């Protein structure tokens, strides 16, 4: 059976997937807003343990079609071992259609396009990538490895062999001070990289994180719910009409969106404008239902 270590986090779209933990924690773990893996020391699980879990789980769930490799940055696994994991999954789950994984700029630097192609051939066909922001000042503020240009370059590299990218961006990450430039420059980054899926989360400040201490010292002020909606609106208004799925269906979001762009974009923009103009709080998720 599956032997999970610590809290397991998965994307909303992996709700029906089998979650296989092949790494523990995150390779970076320095982002000022993220509380996710602070209790974990990063490591790659032993391949014999992974193989044992795959075999035992396949006996129980032979109909499995989608598998997500946890934890926070499993793409960092050395290529030979990652290929072995993918081959084991293909062997023991005959109906498997997709393997997906979180991937950071830091770890994807170690993977060539040829290596990504090898993974694609073994059904690793979706990488979730935390781009967070396209603004240079906000990126430096959050203490995350890489840069907006690094996000663009990495996304394009992933796409080259036909792997899909789900890009995560975070509303509110620049606070009130950088709200407009965060929205505009994040849209510019997405326009240049054109991921197949975009997921907009909303910043929730958690006690114990550096950004919480900044908030306590009045060094960071989060926009209110309508300020966050205005930021979302500005991002969408600056987003080019390329084809993608756009989601804001994470538990943190005030306004759930599940749309196909560019087809649905005008309707979504008009809906957001109407909510802002009328201050219609009933259209928004209540605070007690929001979560990380």
Characterize the structure shown.
The structure is a single chain. The protein is α/β, with parallel strands linked by helices and 292 residues long. The chain has one domain: Alpha-Beta Barrel (TIM Barrel), CATH 3.20.20.70. It has 10 helices and 10 strands. It has an 8-stranded mixed sheet. Helix 2 links the parallel strand 4 and strand 5.
Q: Could you provide a short overview of the structure?
A:
With 292 residues, this protein is an alpha/beta fold. The chain is built from ten helices and ten strands.
Rg value: 19 Å
What best-fitting shape do the alpha-carbon axes yield?
Answer: globular
* Number of helices, where a helix is a run of at least 4 consecutive DSSP H or I residues: 10
Overall pLDDT confidence: 95
Strand-residue proportion: 15-25%
Q: Output the strand order for the largest sheet.
A: 1-4-5-6-7-8-9-10
Main beta sheet, described? 8 strands, mixed
């Amino acid at each position: 059976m599956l032997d999970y270590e610590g809290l397991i986090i998965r994307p909303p779209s992996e709700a029906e997937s089998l979650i296989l933990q092949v790494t523990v924690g995150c390779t970076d773990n320095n982002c000022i807003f993220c509380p996710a893996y602070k209790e974990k020391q990063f490591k790659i699980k032993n391949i014999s343990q992974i193989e044992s879990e795959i075999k035992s789980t396949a006996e129980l769930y032979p109909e499995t079609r989608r598998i997500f490799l946890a934890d926070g940055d499993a793409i960092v696994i050395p290529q030979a071992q990652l290929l072995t994991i993918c081959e084991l999954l293909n062997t023991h789950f005959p109906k498997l259609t997709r393997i997906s994984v979180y991937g950071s700029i830091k770890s994807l630097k170690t993977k060539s396009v040829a290596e990504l192609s090898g993974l694609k051939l073994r059904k690793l066909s979706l990488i979730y990538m935390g781009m967070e922001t396209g603004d240079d000042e906000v990126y430096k503020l959050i203490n995350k490895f890489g840069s907006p240009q690094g996000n663009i370059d990495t996304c394009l590299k992933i796409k080259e062999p036909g792997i899909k990218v789900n890009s995560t961006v975070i509303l509110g990450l620049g606070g009130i001070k950088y709200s407009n430039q965060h929205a505009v420059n994040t849209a510019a980054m997405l326009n240049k990289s054109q991921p197949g899926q975009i997921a907009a989360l909303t910043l929730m400040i958690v006690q114990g994180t550096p950004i919480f201490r900044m908030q306590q010292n009045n060094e960071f002020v989060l926009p209110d719910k309508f300020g966050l909606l205005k930021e979302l609106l500005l991002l969408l208004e600056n987003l080019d009409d390329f084809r993608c799925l756009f989601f804001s269906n994470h538990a943190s979001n005030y306004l759930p969106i599940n749309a196909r762009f560019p087809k649905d974009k005008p309707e979504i923009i008009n809906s957001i404008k109407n909510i802002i103009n009328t201050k219609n709080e009933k259209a928004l998720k209540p605070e007690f239902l929001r979560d990380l």
